[in-house]
């Protein structure tokens, strides 16, 4: 896009709200592009480092509010972080991440300064479910720590990983969190029913979590799995405790997701449960 932009509103020295040739409102980021500028002034495309469309008016208002309330250096840092995420994930991110991640990290830094620590109960599950996002999130937290001279708790890695996954998959953070809570609830039910303590870092637990994730994704997508009637009969006879528990877990998933789950899923789940015992 090489056509010039016309300023609608100056946010700070390095950020403005402007219109392009199609009269779309954009947020433009660039060194000094807002300095001394007023409404109607022209900005050449070559002076723009980053351009965000933010088609949702609500999100644009939220981002404008964030830019005005936070230090310019912090906004610049988060813009660099998001650029890094996009390069590492090798895909276009949902632009909501500019609002969501900037807001989250500003709050996380504030909590740290106030001596508050919010525990992340799904850290191991997040690392297991979204390994690539988790690795990139580790890099993000390290970059922020070095830039600000702070040490954010490891739990923030998990939170950032979920923001990345949300932006990559165009799924809401609430849906993703619901799945994490569901998997954690199922794990607790397994411990209670089998009277065991799950080793959250064991290979069998990691396999179980990945299986539960794929089961949830298949159910959400409406995918069918082949019936396994003969295998189901064998498992029911050989491992009745795990087979019955598998059905209990299926019922919990059905109630939470509000969708039917094929009977064959109980067969595959039984085999994962048997490994745990």
UniProtKB/TrEMBL annotation:
UniProt keyword Repeat, yes or no: yes
Residue ranges constituting the PRD domain according to the UniProt record: 69-174, 175-277
Listed InterPro entries: BglG_antiterminators, CAT_RNA-bd_dom, CAT_RNA-bd_dom_sf, PRD, PRD_sf
The UniProt record lists the keyword Lyase: no
Keywords tagged on the record: Repeat
Identification of the protein by name: Transcription antiterminator
């Amino acid at each position: 896009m090489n056509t010039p932009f016309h300023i609608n509103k100056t946010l700070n020295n390095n950020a403005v709200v402007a219109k392009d040739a199609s009269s779309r409102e954009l947020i433009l980021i660039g060194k000094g592009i807002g300095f001394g500028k007023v409404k109607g002034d022209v900005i050449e495309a070559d002076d723009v480092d980053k351009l965000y469309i933010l088609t949702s008016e609500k999100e644009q208002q939220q981002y404008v509010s964030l830019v005005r309330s936070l230090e310019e250096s912090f906004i610049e840092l988060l813009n660099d972080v998001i650029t890094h995420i996009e390069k590492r994930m090798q895909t276009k991110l949902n632009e909501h991440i500019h609002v969501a991640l900037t807001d989250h990290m500003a709050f996380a830094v504030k909590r740290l300064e106030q001596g508050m620590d919010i525990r992340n109960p799904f850290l191991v599950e997040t690392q297991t479910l979204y390994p690539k996002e988790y690795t990139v999130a580790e890099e993000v937290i390290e970059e922020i720590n070095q830039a600000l001279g702070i040490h954010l708790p490891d739990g923030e890695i998990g939170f950032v990983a979920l923001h990345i996954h949300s932006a990559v998959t165009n799924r809401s953070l609430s849906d993703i969190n619901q799945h994490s809570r569901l998997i954690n609830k199922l794990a607790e039910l397994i411990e209670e029913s089998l009277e065991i303590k799950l080793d959250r870092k064991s290979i069998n637990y990691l396999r179980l979590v990945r299986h539960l994730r794929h089961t949830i994704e298949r159910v959400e997508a409406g995918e069918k799995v082949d019936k396994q009637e003969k295998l189901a009969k064998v498992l029911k006879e050989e491992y009745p405790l795990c087979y019955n528990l598998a059905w209990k877990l299926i019922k919990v998933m059905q109630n939470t997701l509000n969708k039917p789950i094929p009977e064959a899923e109980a067969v595959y789940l039984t085999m994962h449960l048997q490994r745990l015992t």
